[in-house]
Records
---
Amino acid sequence: MTLAGYQIDLVETGRIRLDGGAMFGIVPRPLWERRIEPDERGRIPLAMRCLLLRGHGRTILVDTGVGDKGTDKFNDIYGVDLDHSTLLGSFTALEVGPGDVTDVLFTHLHFDHAGGATQRTQAGDLEVVFPNADLWVGERHWQWAKESPRESASFLAENLDPLGASGRLRLIGDGDEPFPNVALEVVDGHTIGQVLPRVTDGERSVFFPADLVPTAAHVSPLWIMAYDIRPLDTLSEKERLLDRAARENWGVVFEHDPVTAWSRIVDAERGVATFDERPDLPTEM
Ligand SMILES: [Zn+2]
């Protein structure tokens, strides 16, 4: 798809599995298991679908998936599946190399969003996968990620430290919008200072709500992850942004939905109403 001067592509970076109960919070299992079927360990399969924007002289990658440096134990707990897609495999299909990326925008630094930005060298050291890219993180989020005891299981030093040491970390203040034709919404319900990009030409928009609305099932206002640190903020952020998405007919990309990559929102208030669900982006908005 092209919009607002960008070629927009979805980049599948692999699959993980997370506990279904944690993914759906207070929603009873008989309801959520009809939407995404759990495995025998109660986990549901999740995509890690990133966004690639090429235009305005830049190649911007939004999020990076979990990456391939997890230990066997980590990969077992989270069901890491890199057999069907990887970040660099999807890049190859799009004829993009890691060195082509000018900017990486992290919506936030949970391991399933930030892990793919770093890899181990043969000597076992950590390095950033993208040698030429500026690495963009919300300023309040960066502080929170370094300090938060509440989310320490999601913020891994192996993912954060190389970004800080790279000399290429760029912090985004609230209200900053460093990329042409990309509006940034900053939300605080899932984690502090999550940055959500919306590519827009002023009339049409493609919105990437990351973990504010991780799957199509989470369009329902009260379908909120138990991981969220401020669920009532998530509720009001979803109501505000999905209501606007419905009114302005935004295309919405679901980063974690295992089936539906893209949809429009019909009726945010009543939740489940999505239509035009697709496994890929349409060629035109
Ligand atoms: Zn997250």
---
Amino acid sequence: MSRLVFRCPNTANFIDAGVDTDRQSLAAALSDAMRVYCPYCREHHELPIREAILEDPAA
Ligand SMILES: [Zn+2]
């Protein structure tokens, strides 16, 4: 499993979505969006799954 990470649209910081997923699950949800709490802006961002990054814990 990899960690789902988003990029903050305002500050360009990486936001850990707190979700573990894999490439197959991610590919199936590419047209969806996800509400993620951003600690940098201190608000939620509605971010498209297709812009998410998979962070491999082994990397
Ligand atoms: Zn933000």
